[in-house]
Every structure is written in structure tokens, then in C-alpha cells.
Amino acid sequence: MGRSIAGELLENGHEVLLIDKAPTAISVERVPQAEWLLADACEITSLDEAALERCNVVIAATGDDKVNLVVSLLAKTEYGVPRVVSRVNNPKNEWLFNESWGVDVAVSTPRLMSALVEEAVSVGDLVRLLRFSQGDANLVELTLPPEAALAGTRVGDVTWPEDTALVTIIRGNRVLVPDSDDALEVGDELLFVAAPAREEQLEDLLSVRGEPS
């Protein structure tokens, strides 16, 4: 997973350092543009060698939740890394992956997979895709159902719930940055960053039962 993420980031013009303690995992030929370090990322001496303080983002992507938590905590508290993203392998451990452990964004692989299944089969139901620990917010998706009350309403005419932001409209093969003059259409996939306490309001607003603002 680490190599796959690194490859994507390198394609987008970022500098990447991969750290792994297993010699068999060091595969320079597979990601030749990345820097590599054979070390234990849970050790301060290793992170000093990696000069973690120069990183803008640290991604803890191992298959061990304990390791990911330790790396996240060290990255945030010892090196002041601005953004820490951590993989959650066991859904039972999700409650730990928050700002207390230095995690800004927790990516739960099982939850994300189930969310993508829900997103594919659910219309009109709110689906949580990601949780942002810092700021207490979620990335949520809802597909506007047929006969939704807000279908045809301009984005700028909708009174969205407090602590909620519409960030993207996916319409067919197009990804739209929402504009106040854009009209919502049945079948639009709407992505929001929303406080958990506002999710029910948001779902009601966008459902068949909702009332246009």
C-alpha cells in the first residue's frame, strides 16, 4: 500500500520518502523516483535520520494499527508535521485514531470499502466516506434521489445546515466545483464536509421529504 500511494504522489509532482524496517519490502526498482530508508519508523533515531521535520505530510500505512498510531503520534508531537494521515486496519480501533494520537485524517480500509458498496447501492441515503479527526468533521456523500424536493434548486438558494460545506458535485463523468448558480439535478452525487451532528439534518434536507429553502 505504501508503494502504491508513493507512486500516485510522485506522479502528481510530490517528493516522497518511504520508510520500512523489512529489507524485503525495500523495492527501489518499483518506485525509483522515491527516497528509501531501511529503518523502524517507531524509533526516534530513525525519524531523525529521515528528517521528518521537513515533511508536510506523513502517511502511516502499515497493516499494524499499533505501529500506525505510534508513527502518527511521533510525527505530530516530536516533529510538528502539519498533516498526519493514518490507515485503520481494524474497525474496532477507529476510536483511537484522533487528534490525541496525532491523527488528522483516519482512513479505515474496511469502512471505506463498505462505504463504497453502500454508495453504489444507496440513493437518498447519506454515506460516510472519511473522518477528519481535526475539526470533528466527516466527508459524506449523498446521491440526490428521484423526486427530491431540492432537484432543480440553485446551490446558492439552499440554506445548508450550519457546519456543512458542499465541496463537489459529481454529475455523470463530470466533477463540478459547486457554483451558486448551479442547479441540483436528480442523480447528482453530492460530497460534503459536515459535522457529525449535522448529518441527519443534511440527509433530511436532501431527501424526498426535504423542503426547498
Describe the structure concisely for a colleague.
Pfam families: TrkA_C, TrkA_N. By secondary structure, this protein is α/β, with parallel strands linked by helices.
Describe the structure.
- This protein is α/β, with parallel strands linked by helices.
- It folds into two domains: 1-107, Rossmann fold (3-Layer(aba) Sandwich), CATH 3.40.50; 122-206, Alpha-Beta Plaits (2-Layer Sandwich), CATH 3.30.70.
- The chain has five helices and ten strands, in the order H-E-E-H-E-H-E-E-H-E-E-E-E-E-H.
- It has helices at residues 2-11, 44-49, 65-77, 109-121, 199-206, and strands at residues 17-20, 35-38, 57-60, 83-88, 105-108, 127-132, 137-143, 164-171, 174-176, 189-194.
- The strands form two sheets. An eight-stranded mixed β-sheet has the order 3-4-5-6-7-10-8-9. The chain has a two-stranded parallel sheet with strand order 1-2.
- A hairpin with a 2-residue loop joins strand 8 and strand 9.
- It is elongated and about 60 Å long.
- The mean pLDDT is 86.
- It holds the Pfam family TrkA_C.
- Residues 127-208 form the RCK C-terminal domain.
- One of its GO terms (biological process) is potassium ion transport.
- InterPro entries: NAD(P)-bd_dom_sf, RCK_C, RCK_C_sf, RCK_N, Trk_Ktr_HKT_K-transport.
- Residues 1-107 form the RCK N-terminal domain.
